[in-house]
Fold this sequence. Notes:
By secondary structure, the chain is of the alpha/beta class.
Amino acid sequence: xxxxxxxxxxxxxxxxxxxxxxxxxxxxxxxxxxxxxxxxxxxxxxxxxxxxxxxxxxxxxxxxxxxxxxxxxxxxxxxxxxxxxxxxxxxxxxxxxxxxxxxxxxxxxxxxxxxxxxxxxxxxxxxxxxxxxxxxxxxxxxxxxxxxxxxxxxxxxxxxxxxxxxxxxxxxxxxxxxxxxxxxxxxxxxxxxxxxxxxxxxxxxxxxxxxxxxxxxxxxxxxxxxxxxxxxxxxxxxxxxxxxxxxxxxxxxxxxxxxxxxxxxxxxxxxxxxxxxxxxxxxxxxxxxxxxxxxxxxxxxxxxxxxxxxxxxxxxxxxxxxxxxxxxxxxxxxxxxxxxxxxxxxxxxxxxxxxxxxxxxxxxxxxxxxxxxxxxxxxxxxxxxxxxxx
Length: 390
Ligand code: LLP
């Protein structure tokens, strides 16, 4: 059996939770806030997994109270907190154990997670994973349901997942041998990449699934183990290509530069770092189209910049038609890790999110208002009297 747990961190709104539920997926959340969104959307609680490498006591309490499907335990401190918090519980809480399989994926270092040198999970090689599972097995309030890993994100081949599967199934065998427990669930995380540029060629979901399942079965058979439920946690590969960001072109200027072709044209748009921090964080690249000029040849090379008070270059040297203020740029593949990573830098109002289905467009997140920008602010009484209003 294969269960898809949509990784909420990639794009989470209540409407999205409804879609995830409708598709029959589970939901993976990584904080109390994400769990709150899922619960508010009425997502079936037994189909929610909670992640986090530093869950607070409050988060664990909230998850226990909400009776979610799995808590994915990351570290020994968390085991101690769960021991205490589940004391006297009549019903056991199911947990998965987050492991680091020691796989170095081929992706940007900021989104690699499976390597041994990581803050995530229990190290498999040094015996921490086995020790964690042993401790969990001795806590009456907890039920050990299986193991979890996540190797990295935006992976354009299967290599690291295949290596991770080997390490995970070897661990499964050693859990059986040393502790006598079965892993009902093996969760291998998310990570399948998507097409940001034309030349990106990620495996299809089918190819990916087939190769993973093939490897899983080979390794299970080698150890003569039964078949666990295979869980996967894709985020990006589900939502990224479904998202397009629309910007309006504003000021356009051409400046002299040292290198060829001796000049650069900056096209500034009405957003930037605050709605898409990925170019600066991960050197991410995107395909840019001029939505209102799709029939014009894209023969100009320009650099699209944001409107923040710093050099927030969004897309360097992209080919577009001859643009004018008011034109609309459509940036492809912005469905994942854009809306959720947006900020209010320079007090920009975060953009609306519109869901399009069968020709119907519906707002699922309103554009932020000016009032919302100061909603959480307070002026202490000692400062309140001082302003000299005119
Ligand atoms: N499961 C776990 C435990 C994860 O940590 C992640 C992503 C996923 C699943 C989903 O991975 P995906 O299928 O989306 O690759 N902000 C970065 C990406 C960070 C990914 C963190 N973890 C970006 O914008 O590229």
